[in-house]
Amino acid sequence: MFESAELGHKIDKKTYDKEAPKLRADLLDAQFDVGELKKFPVIILINGVDGAGKGETVNLLNAWMDPRHIQTHAFPPPSDEERERPFMWRFWRALPPRGKIGILFGNWYTDPIVNRVIKVTKAADLDQSIEEINRFEQMLADEGALILKFWFHLSKDAQRKRLKALEKDKDTRWRVTKADWEHFAIYDKFRAVSEHALRHTSTGVAPWIVVEGADEQYRSLTVAKILLDAMRKRVDQEKKGARRVAVSAPPPPPAADRRDLINSLDMKLALTKKKFDKELEKYQGRLNLLTRNPKFKERSLICVFEGSDAAGKGGSIRRITGALDARQYAIVPIAAPTEEERAQPYLWRFWRHAPRIGRVTIFDRSWYGRVLVERVEGFAREEDWMRAYAEINDFEDQLVRSGAIVAKFWLAITAEEQLKRFKEREKTRFKRFKITEEDWRNRKKWNDYEHAVCDMIDRTSTEIAPWTLVEANDKLHARIKVLKTLCDRIESALRE
Amino acid sequence: MFESAELGHKIDKKTYDKEAPKLRADLLDAQFDVGELKKFPVIILINGVDGAGKGETVNLLNAWMDPRHIQTHAFPPPSDEERERPFMWRFWRALPPRGKIGILFGNWYTDPIVNRVIKVTKAADLDQSIEEINRFEQMLADEGALILKFWFHLSKDAQRKRLKALEKDKDTRWRVTKADWEHFAIYDKFRAVSEHALRHTSTGVAPWIVVEGADEQYRSLTVAKILLDAMRKRVDQEKKGARRVAVSAPPPPPAADRRDLINSLDMKLALTKKKFDKELEKYQGRLNLLTRNPKFKERSLICVFEGSDAAGKGGSIRRITGALDARQYAIVPIAAPTEEERAQPYLWRFWRHAPRIGRVTIFDRSWYGRVLVERVEGFAREEDWMRAYAEINDFEDQLVRSGAIVAKFWLAITAEEQLKRFKEREKTRFKRFKITEEDWRNRKKWNDYEHAVCDMIDRTSTEIAPWTLVEANDKLHARIKVLKTLCDRIESALRE
Asked: What's the ipTM?
């Protein structure tokens, strides 16, 4: 991958001086169009070897375009708030919103490559990282991001010459540190690992662009032209309304015999009040102890509640929080996204609520809205919700690997039970229980929702983050099943 | 202040059982109304002595109301991201948006009181904190927040009895730690300092409510009733549209002789291109060195740019960023607030961008919009922008005391120069330079803006964060003056 970037590319000063001013003006214009359209973010990754002009290029892009609409992020050692969350959290945090340019200097490639070079990780770890990165970048592209990945390269020989030249001049000698020569000593290893990583992450939606870094003029014109071209093309596409072609397999139809996970549940399950009171005390006590276990301080807990309207999500959540210290948990009720959230990839608004270790976050509705309400109501296109299953699994995988315990509950009630609850609510004096037009509308699509729920469970009930189906026609049974399941999950997690 | 809370208040079980259910239902209803109105946030502060039921009360409020719309924040030792910003940053971060309830357990009172008790600070420090808190809470109230400050109290005797009782029972003995007796030993000191703090922070808009904590039933009913009453009253007021009365002094008129800071500037000041090039190199070099100075790593830099349309803010900013490493700075262009920002006090959207130490943040327009465009266009009511001057000074004072260097620039051009620039821009091929209808409209209010600018400078040019008036009819002169001023400010700050 690096051969073409070792040819000694050069641009003479005259050509540069001729081309640069026009390029700058065109870049500014293209940036303005990106900002005005607000249809997609531009994500620029800056990677490569030392001394190949990474920092200079970042400064150049800021100087040539309008820096007010560029967000540059370097990633020094993570803060404690970052360290206590999944690896990718800090990068999600740094994603530019639609209409802006984000330059990520050092990014999700840095640790996987460097750790492999210095043998902190194994080849298999690098390959796992590569797979994850590919899935992540595919998601970004599917969400509309324009991704440009620049790798700045210097041949071994050019690197040696550069360091020697710096050392020779008494004004620049201080710039060459011991670390520089140490890096040089592992040049071959770094090159081999990088080549492997680049080859396997050069995808159709986010290919690597390797730039020879030795000649500043060549480097600058090359990067600027590629960026300009990519922004221009994308702006034109968007203006023409040329949507990419849907590329998802058709969603599976409901089972031919209509037997499914939901209608196979035993909806008669119920508890007496007496039994409930006893069990409630028991499991709330257990849950309280578990969350005060010293081992829990190294984990976090994420509970997801989904269910039809009036299925009793709120009531179940309160039986959990009743066992916890209010300082420990946060409840995130999911409603329509805010404008800051709409300017980001779908999962961004859930990533921002990922808990630090030792904490509990309860989602009242969640990222599963994508494959439930958005699917059924047609708010998301088919190819978008079809890809969501895999994206969600990836998201939860990262949460779990960072130490989170993820417990997901589907509260199932029958259509008859829902009708009964709606009617009861219509009678109550409390406005907060009033049934809206929308609630009645949703009921009409009962079968569509049931189909969507079954697909969701089939595709996202994983070993690391399984769904629990809760027969919720009887509220008492439902609440205890939720609590018991939660206790069991935490207990087994803390035993690990 | 504590006498009434040492009377041994008690509520018997029967009364409690009778009153509690109705209170819960009413609280839920009031909470629902607050959430539906979305006009104001409810901020509940929980403070007081150990063992007086603070944690229990927080849990109770979460249990009695809908915990999905309550945000509870405890404040353990600050994270590094918090430590590297002003003291109040973590509290701003935790403020609930309009329509939500925020319970702040441990808050801006904790450190000032505790530090005084253990004599880390002096009496004068506490008094300074008190004054700042009063101004902060006044601002919250002016922004519409409903503030409830609960202080949970136990008499010394009750405290001793409580600890003894816990120690006597073998099941609870573990709960009494050495720290508890140590706290008890300084009970009198703690009481005296707290009393002083409470007395001086019990204001009309945010009085303290001291609750005797010994009897759980008394405590619970008391807090619940006060909260219910406060929410109800406020909801009713809002529904009636009863705005509080404007209480600001009238803004001063322009000087009788029309001489002011702006029209006294020498707008002929200019530089030749040759001189500019030389100076640019000199000051950019100096600025670059200054921001790489090891001492700068313990400071941060905040630049504020204000000026009429076409005054050259963007160009001046680019001459600064041209001297910096792009990884070090962030530029925050201020446009209309997002909905998340609109749900918070005015200054919230600027607080969220407060830089960590070692970093540079440049605001292209800023919090001064409140006293410029919002004043002139009537977007803010007179009493709101009149109080903004003091709020802004408080904000900048906190920034500076946390180590920030705050440099504010007003780029002044004459009406004639603006007209010339507008006309030039109309001819350009670049869409990004197009003049909008709004630009022409703003011009018509030139005198109003000039008056507002002079008031702003009079009221917010402080010793710690002075304004620099920049004669900007000549762009070259303006850019150099900005750079030079910035270098001087940083140099003198690093010498401190």
From this structure: 0.86
